[in-house]
Structures are given as structure tokens and as C-alpha cells.
Amino acid sequence: MEFRIASIDHVQIAAPPGCEAAAREFYGAILGMKELVKPAALRARGGCWFECGAHQLHVGVEQDFRPARRAHPAFAVARLDELREILLARGIRVADDDNLPETRRFYADDPWGNRLEFVEARQEA
User: How far is CA 88 from CA 24, 91, 109, in A?
Assistant: First the structure.
């Protein structure tokens, strides 16, 4: 086998129709991700795309939407405690998790109930 998977290009999260304003508020304003312009051919589908480090997060519209409660993306966060306080101040519930001994992390839900994991970014040596 000569091919290899080089990296993840993007992760897509499903959301209900009409999700764009809430996506921009949560992923853009609160989490600080830069919104990307979707290609013209895909704009009619709805949703939003965001830059997430070297990767992208796509919020895609799903007509029969059900939140992902188990499957989830994990975001590496510099200044994890600051994000935690911002989410709490906005009334967003966080669930701390200490099941991985050497990993600081917590979970929170996006506006539609999708599970998100936030882990402390590792310091570059």
C-alpha cells in the first residue's frame, strides 16, 4: 500500500436548519474561530465553515437533525481555564473529566446539543 492519510482536512458537525446565526455566535464570537467563505456552489445548502488552526470545522445543515451525544471533535485549547470561565459566564454548562490522568479536559455542548471536548493544548518544547 503506497498511499497514506496525511491529516484531517476538516470535521463536520450537524445542525438543524436555520443554525447559521447561532453557529456564528458560538463558534465565531465565543470560541473565536474565523468564519470562512463557503464555495458558491455549496452556499445554498446552508451552514457555516470556520477555521480551526490548520484545519476547518464545517457546520452542516441536517434536515432530520439529532445532536451527536457520543461522537465529538476535541479542540486543543491554549488557556483552557479561561475558555471554561467564558463558557460558564455565558450560561454554558461544562462537565469536567479527569479520566485521562495527564490530560486536562472538559466537555460542553454547542447550541444544538452536540458534544464537544476541550483539552489543554500541549506546550511546544
Answer: 19, 5, 12
Residues forming beta bridges with residue 57, ordered by sequence position: 11, 50
Q: What pTM does this model have?
A: 0.92
**Grid coordinates of 116:** 464537544
- 32 — pLDDT class (breaks 50, 70, 90): very high
Q: How many CB atoms lie within 10 A of CB 84?
A: 18
Q: Which CATH number fits domain 10-120: 3.10.180.10, 3.20.20.370, 3.10.450.50, 1.20.120.530?
A: 3.10.180.10
Backbone angles phi, psi at 30, to 5 degrees: -80, -50
The Cα–Cα gap between 49 and 59 comes to: 6
> CB 124: neighbour CB atoms within 10 A?
4
DSSP state of 26: I
- Contact indicator for 118, 74 with CB cutoff of 8 Å: yes
Q: Which three cell numbers stand for residue 65?
A: 437533525
What ranges do the domains of the chain cover?
A: 10-120
